[in-house]
Structures are given as C-alpha cells and as structure tokens.
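Chain A, query sequence.
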Amino acid sequence: MSVSRGLRLAVDFFMAALLLSALAYRITGDLWHELTGLAVLALVLFHNAANLNWYGKVFSGKYGARRSVNTLLNAALIADAAVLFISGFAQSRCVLSFLELDGGIVLRTIHAATGYWFLLLVSAHAGAHWEWLSHSAGLKGGTTFRIFCAFAATCGLWAFFERDMFAKLFLGYTFDFWNPDYPSPLFFLANIAIMGFYMCVVRCVLTVFFDMRRTVRERWAHRRRNEADL
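Chain A, predicted structure.
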C-alpha cells in the first residue's frame, strides 16, 4: 500500500490524539471511549497496511542490533494491541450493547493495563523512529529544541509518578481515577508529557547503546589492523 510520508505522519499524530482521548473515559464517558477506541483500531489497521512491506521482510535478510530491537518492539506492540482491542470488544456497553457481553472485572483490569502499555509502546515505537518522525515533521535538533525536549521529559517523569503509571502498567487499576476538581486539560497534558518521557528515554537509551556498540566495533577493528601490521 503506497502512502505518502505526509499522510502517514498525519495519521500517526491523529492516532496518538485519539489514544489520549480514549484514555480519558472518566472524563468523556463510555460512549466516546468506545467510539475513539474503534477509531484508533481503524488507524492502527491503516498504519499496518501502509507498512505491509515490513511484514514481508520479517523472515528475510540479516538481523543486526537495530533491526532486532525494532522487531521486538513491533512484536510487543502488535501483541498488546490485539489484547487491548479484543478485551475492549468483550466488554462493550454501548457500541456492541446488543450482544450483551459481560467481560468481567478481570478482563476490565487487563484492558486498562494493556491500554497504558499501548501508550508506552506507541511512544517507544515513536522514539525508536525519531529520525523518520523529525525529518517528516521538519524538526531540527538545535539547542533550543533539545532544551524543550529535556523539559518535556522532566515533566513526563513527574507525571509518571503523579499518575501512578507503574501500578497502571502492572494490573494495579481496574478503573482509572481522575479527580474531578482538577481541570480536564491537565489530564491530557500529563499523558502527553508521559508520552514525551517514554520517547526520550527510548531515544536516549538506543542512541547510547548503538554509539557504544559502534565505538567498540571500531576499536576492535583498529586493534585487528594494528595486529595485522605487526
């Protein structure tokens, strides 16, 4: 499926926005949650259809460190998305209410956890493809931009603990709580900051890892050349 870079970028940003909206079901209500969930599913399917060539190459070619990391990350994202959407369908109260499904409290807990894992993995996926995203969006990695990213990541780290994300990721919540006394925009800003934190962590870890790996390989090659000259 041939899709322009600009359309892919627009779809990805729109999907991230809808994902944030779907997570706010305590604010928006069940109907909007289910509708945005279906919209996210449609955009996920579109994203995968636009990248079918990746699936065709999974079992061919050599696997280096970067390709292995990206493949594992993609596999985790696909598995999490499958559980997320299946568990969502199984407990639909609005869109599929005519089926009278009863997902149960355990399935609700799994759905909540996989929703926040989906947020993490989507952000990690974006961090691993930062070069493509920044190039497509025309972003330049100047000092001002780096300072802004560091500030956003710091806010995301604070929001991570403030929103008790560790418990959300590991089946600690069945119903996500949002204090109605807090302004609703703060919920979205906190989750956006958390996404930025995930992206920056993955981006920095991968950069350091691949730089160290390249340095080790260069030093090893230099040592072998020196030994060959002796």
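The longest helix spans residues 184-229. The chain has one domain: 64-229.
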